[in-house]
Design brief:
With 371 residues, the chain is an alpha/beta fold. It has helices at residues 4-16, 34-47, 58-68, 99-102, 125-131, 151-165, 218-228, 231-234, 248-255, 266-277, 279-290, 312-316, 322-325, 340-344, 353-361; strands spanning 51-55, 89-92, 110-113, 136-142, 170-174, 182-183, 186-187, 194-198, 211-215, 301-302, 308-311, 326-329, 362-367. β2, α4 (99-102) and β3 form a beta-alpha-beta unit.
Amino acid sequence: MIGKEERAAVLRVMDRGILSGYRGCWDRSFCGGQEIKALEREWEAYFGVKHAIACNSATSGLWMACAAIGLQQHIPCNFDKIKHYDVSETIVSPYSMTCSASIPLHFGCKPVFADIEGDYYYLDPNSVEKAISERTKAIIVVDLFGQPYDADAINSIAEKYSKKYGHKIYVIEDAAQAIGAKCKGKYAGTLGDIGVYSLNVHKHIHCGEGGVVVTDNDELAMKIRLAMNHSEAVVNDMGIKYCKATHPVSYHLYESIIGMNMRMTELQAAVAREQLKKLEGILKSVREHAKYFPVKVRPDCEHAYYRYAMTYSEWTKLPEEWHYMYNWKQHYITPLYKLPLFQSLGYDQNQCPVCEEVEENIVLAWLRETP
């Protein structure tokens, strides 16, 4: 779906000669250049969200979200297995791209796997509730294959145990595969406290590599921006002085954040702006083809159909010629706790039976003309 519009947008940026408008300092360039700012405003308008922050990937976006909610912890220097950590926990899916489970490890936070739901593939609320403890800091949900997570149930669980344990349990929504999906009229990515979209080349719309993080929370939005763009270099110029005794709120909100460089370029933003204009047409196409597949869609939801997911037995009942009309494979991803990283950290290798059954039987199909 890269066409003349994207080519013209790239040339527009090239003619201006400014390929990145960012600087790691507290001035007008802190929030990027002309294309970045335009993309963020257009994203906010499209998805009906207060803040959109463009970045260089959805993986970076998840890292920024975890930094913003304060996952940083003191890590003992003599640990050898994660089960011995005396730190916070984040509930994650075992059936997802690895980053949604591995990112918490960057902060010394223990990923805790909950099982998935067998028809819709998102985190099972019952399993999530069993996994919650007083150490739980966040739940990272994944809108797998384009299906929004069970927001009513998961958000209620987070709220319930936030009250019980006396600290906020955040819901971070990985909507990388679900751009344009909806639940009860709200877009996927806007259903939790923070949402993360992907603009990777394999997604519905893309700019090669890229991501967007959204939130309606002003405080979280500023933390996300600081995490993305050299926080420690700019907070002093923001007028925040290190004085924990007299400015405890400012210290807590900003000065403890260690920033990175996870910025999107003007070229990527220009392409992403044109791609966003094409999203409705792309969704119309994938939804038109969806009627041929036995994909289960939750009531009150609009699926984005990143992949048409079904069982192998269901796939074999479809016309044989479809095997040549569509891309397909009989596999998604090995349950994450079975990967070498998590094996080395001592995870139970049989902890999510529904996930393992799904992976054994799943077939994924998608349009040949999409990336």
